[in-house]
Design goal:
By secondary structure, the protein is mainly β. The chain folds into five domains: about 120 residues, Beta Barrel (OB fold (Dihydrolipoamide Acetyltransferase, E2P)); about 90 residues, OB fold (Dihydrolipoamide Acetyltransferase, E2P); about 100 residues, Thrombin, subunit H, CATH 2.40.10.170; about 110 residues, OB fold (Dihydrolipoamide Acetyltransferase, E2P) (Beta Barrel); about 100 residues, no CATH class. It has eight helices and 36 strands.
Amino acid sequence: MQRRLLHALCVLLPCSPLLPPAYAQAAEAPAAATTPSSPAAPSSPAFPAHHSDQRISGELVSIDFIRRIGQFRATKTGNVVEFTLPPYGTAQYLNSEASLRDLPLGTFFLFFLNQDTQGGWTRLATMQDQYTMDASHSFTYRLDEVKLAENKLLTTKHSISKKQEDLGKKELLLSPATRYWRGADQIRPEDLKPGEELLYTLTGKTSSNPGVCTDIWAGVETHAQATKQMREKFDAFTKHRGLPGWVDKTEGSTVTVTFFSGDAKLYQTLYGDALAQGKGGNLCVANQDLRTWNPGVDKDGCSIISSEKIPPDGYGNSGIRATFKVSNMLEGFRKGRVVRFFGSGWPTKDQFYGESLMGYGFGRLQTPELDENPAKEYPDQFPFRTDFGNEHLPWYQIKPGIAPPPFAQHVVLGELTKVDAATRTGQFKTDRTGELMDFSLLPQNLGAVKYLNTDATLGDVPVGTRCRFHLFQDEQGKFTKASLVTDEFTRLATNAMTYRVESIQPTPNSSDPSSVTVNVSWQIPEVKNYNGDMERPPDIGRSLIRLNKDTKVWKGKLETPAALKDLAVGDALIINLTGDFANAPAVCTEVWVGTDLHKALAEAQKNKAKLAAGKNAIPAPNK
């Protein structure tokens, strides 16, 4: 227990380097020139002003629950846009603040983006689905006529509370997958009644396609119930993890905190009493992803000596600021750092394995990407620029014969277009932009290739494979020197991660009839809980992946290819991909199905590597 408490009191640097996420592709900037509004430095927290954002609509295609990053495909351009939720960032779904876990992939959202330190529009203040956009403005759609034979509903948009009777006609397009709800029950489309008030969510919306409804809720009572259920679910989610906020100041044994929320009025109703003067609870240190270490042990008892309502100016501002008298002034109680508060009587629990910054059961987290990222959390400890910060510093320069330090690399994702294994050189096409980049591997002891999670040469990696390139600058300042090249299979295997199939459907709006889209959840291995029992941690993310007639599928045996039709809900996948470009999404080149097959492939690769090493070995001299 002492060791765990020390973890909360001190700054710890894990020795294993984090595998960086895919790096953000800036969304289209406004036509007028703007000055980048950099995210607030940790020493001076500030909420971005309302309407300081750029709003881009698109479909959610990937979400990392733990690191609070994701991707959407922009409606107008078809480009994939990557985003990060800062600590105060929120998601709105069904007219309620919602956990990232509750956002269905493929759903059409409006994304409110602020600029990052590079001027890219990647920092997500909030996001709203179509249901929220309508309900928050008191709009509903009165059903005028049901035309199921034409897969459409004819409606009139209006606002009952504002007495706006006719705001225009609206056709709602349907598909066989559309679901219909009245109260808590799913109903048939034939059960819809003219005159009912409808709200809906969308998918498949593009610049040339209005999209189809994924779900339709019939009746104002149904709308209220759907929103209430989501709010109750998010309330339980939040209380389990503690109310997040950042430290405005510390003085003596007091810590002043402003809390985060996307709905200040509701926040006051739900948590105003718990945050009132005279109340107490526990305060825990968290990181910028709102992750805590071990709250059951490293919590700090506190009492609220003052609480005030403040103007909820800016995105994410709850409108409540409280000053706590703490028992111990922990290292993490610093201006600009994030904390979580557990109210009096609330169980002070660990976050789930994978979400928590401390693993239980095993000695450490088994997924390197989920380790705390020192370059992101503690940039001052690095004397060079990284992919996570220190933009004011130069990049690390390679020194002959010396391995570069962790986090010094600039990681770029792209599709391998050509290689010369003999000279250890090649070319790739960068994700999103399609720019062609030449590269050369660093000398043998510093430059490496991993393919199928095994040491390899560039010649082993098929052209057309999407890879991660760990790059350094050459003498001209271009990123052409590679210390590591890895495929997607290696990333998944290194992180002990598989993709579990949730659903399979034809790819919407695709001209390729063989193309299917698979909704997958990111799964990590079972771990021991405090009782010594093995349990499955919650999924850590979700994404949509595409397969087509050219995708090679392996299921059951490595020697016998399978077919797309052999994929089933519940299958555990490891994959490789092509590059991802505007209007040309990444497609799986190969899919390996089942943990037994994954183990067999790993063993086969090890044997292949041993055989190759033996052939290349220098014979011992005769005595």
